[in-house]
Amino acid sequence: MSRNVTIGAAQVGPILREHSRGEVVERLIALLRAGAAKGCDLVVFPELTLTTFFPRWFFQDESEADIFFETEMPNAATAPLFEEAKRLGVGFHLGYAELTVEDGRQRHFNTAILVDKTGAIVGKYRKVHVPGHSDDRPSYPYQHLEKKYFETGNLGFPVFRAFGGIVGMLICNDRRWPEAHRSLGLQGVEMVLVGYNTPRHAPATPHLDRLSEFHNHLSMQAGAYQNATWVIGVAKAGWEEGADLIGGSCIIAPTGEIMAQAVSQDDELIAFDCDLDLGRGLREHLFNFADHRQPQHYRRLVDQTGVILPPE
Ligand code: ING
To answer: Pairing mode, if any, of strands 238-240 and 230-235?
Structure first.
């Protein structure tokens, strides 16, 4: 009997600085309901879904940025989302800025959680590949100060048994790094959930702007195919506080094919009924690690060529 999970990718349009958490949660609840109406078991929201992408601004005093963080989850603002999800019997993935105390000190993470159909948090991931810069670059039309506001995630690349399969999470820049997908793939992941906020124009690499959508899908389709897993990529999209964020939210099969894709730059729910056993077939044949990798030979080759030459 196949193991099907109907997944909704809930793309979110621009969130402005003036939008309250309550206003945003109302939009998320509308998307959750749209997913329930399409029979979704799980609805995936983007990275940093509760606020505007605040790392585009330089705050001299980092505590000024703390207003964009959540100190508890759920909390008063997000409780309605958890309650509605439980009432509808739909799970969800939520990206948000996490401010917590660990090892006796304040910690700031770019975080994503997995919530099951009972409203319980069953998984958490903290972004490992924190891009951008920490210094003020006022000459840029908008900045990318994630390195100033977030620490490197300290939870590794965990997978979770949920929704009848094995689920992993990545956040935005993580999706560009093969090791991130591979770390989940080597644990047998069957669904990778990835929220992202990606500006079309990257001030540091303007020559790549024309490829922003291509690189977005290339990264996730490769991750899906080479690890025989479903990948659900969900954007915060549209013209947000002077930055043009790409959309292109999509549901990608383990074959690497895009099975559903958003067509707007705004709030939009796309859904697909995902057969988790599709990946199992690829892992048993095409990507049978034990059969085709033969560690004793591979290890020798890597040892022979294992020297990583320093840049010139
Ligand atoms: N955003 C971007 C991303 O990796 C970026 C950062 C933009 C990298 C453009 C390269 C080019 O999609 C986040 N939030 O990681």
So the answer is: unpaired
pLDDT in tens, 25-75: 999 999 999 999 999 999 999 999 999 999 999 999 988 999 999 999 999
Instruction: Tell me the per-residue pLDDT of 154-202, one tens digit each, with 9 for 90 and over.
Output: 999 999 999 999 999 999 999 999 999 999 999 999 999 999 999 999 9
Spatial contact of 194 and 172, defined as CB atoms under 8 Å apart:
yes
Closest Cα to atom 5, ligand 1: which residue? Answer: 198
Residue 151 is among the residues annotated as catalytic for this protein: no
Site residues for ligand 1, CB cut-off 6 Å: 131, 172-173, 176, 196-199, 202
Confidence of residue 295 (pLDDT cuts 50, 70, 90): confident
Q: Beta strand pairing status for 165-171 and 191-196?
A: parallel
Q: Whose CA is nearest to atom 9 of ligand 1?
A: 202
Q: Exposed, middle or buried: residue 175 (CB in 10 Å: 0-12, 13-18, 19+)?
A: buried
The preferred substitution site among 140, 150, 198 for testing ligand 1, maximizing ligand atoms within 8 Å of CB, is 198
Whether 308 has a pLDDT exceeding 60, the answer reads: no
CA–CA gap between residue 264 and residue 93 (Å, rounded): 21
**Quick one: which atom of ligand 1 is closest to the CA of 197?**
14
Spot the catalytic one: 127, 236, 250, 268: 127
**SS3 at position 26:** helix
3-state SS, residue 93 = strand
Dihedral sign (CA 211, 213, 215, 218):
negative
Helix (H, G, I), strand (E, B) or coil at 226: helix
* pLDDT band at 291; cut points 50, 70, 90: confident
